[in-house]
Structures are given as structure tokens and as C-alpha cells.
């Protein structure tokens, strides 16, 4: 049993990428489902399906390389990290993901709506 769903999701996603697998099974939760929907919109995953208590995720690949190189968690249960919009900068090598009152957003969208929140994780991209 685990308490921190986000850490479990990121560990499984990174392990799947590092072992060059395309299919990933996750435990179903509302928070993880919202992150997976965000990943689908951004193109980091190609497809997902809810299978009762689990979620089947198919990771996007561009040629032989996955779109995402790795994900690094920032905010943890023992140390929450919050950001302000004025501290954000846009990069082409990574994407920062935040949890706001309107949902899961990335750096670009957070700057455009002038709203930020808990800094969840960084997604490093294969460019």
C-alpha cells in the first residue's frame, strides 16, 4: 500500500521509459486521472483506458525515443513547493507542471492565465 499516488505514478512512468516499454498500468485515482488527461493533451501519452481500479496508459514514442526523457518530482508530502507566476520561465528542454484551483497546468498556461500553485514535477523532453 502506498500513500503518495503522484510518486508512484512518476516512478512507474520513469521505469517504463528507461526500460523502453510502451504500456503502463497505474492505480486509478481522480488526481492521477487528471494528470493523465493533461499528458494526453500535451502528447506525452498516445492513449489511456480506465479498467476498473487500474488505468492502462500507452506512452508516446517519436521514432525509437519516448517523447518524455524523464520526470522529476519536486513537491513531496514532507516538503510542499509553491511557485509564483513572476518566478516562472519557459524552456524548450523541460516543462514544469503545477496544481492550481482550475486543475493541472503547465508553465506556459500558468503564465497566460496569471495563476500558479503547487509545483508538482518537471517533465524533461527528448528534443
Please name the defining characteristics of this protein.
three-stranded antiparallel β-sheet; 9 strands; alpha+beta; globular; 3 helices; single chain; four-stranded antiparallel β-sheet; 127 residues; Dna Ligase, domain 1
Can you characterise this structure?
With 127 residues, the protein is α+β, with helices and mostly antiparallel strands. It has helices spanning 5-18, 30-42, 107-113; strands at 23-27, 45-51, 54-59, 61-62, 65-66, 68-73, 94-100, 103-106, 118-125. It has one domain: Dna Ligase, domain 1, CATH 3.30.1490. The protein contains three helices and nine strands, in the order αβαβββββββαβ. A four-stranded antiparallel sheet has the order 6-9-7-8. A hairpin with a 2-residue loop joins strand 4 (61-62) and strand 5 (65-66). The longest helix has 14 residues, at 5-18. 19% of the residues are buried. The model has no long low-confidence stretch (mean pLDDT 93).
Number of domains: 1
Widest beta sheet: strand line-up: 6-9-7-8
Shape: globular
The level-1 CATH class = Alpha Beta
Q: Unreliable stretches, pLDDT < 50, 5 or more residues?
A: none
Distance between the termini: 36 Å
- Strands, total number: 9
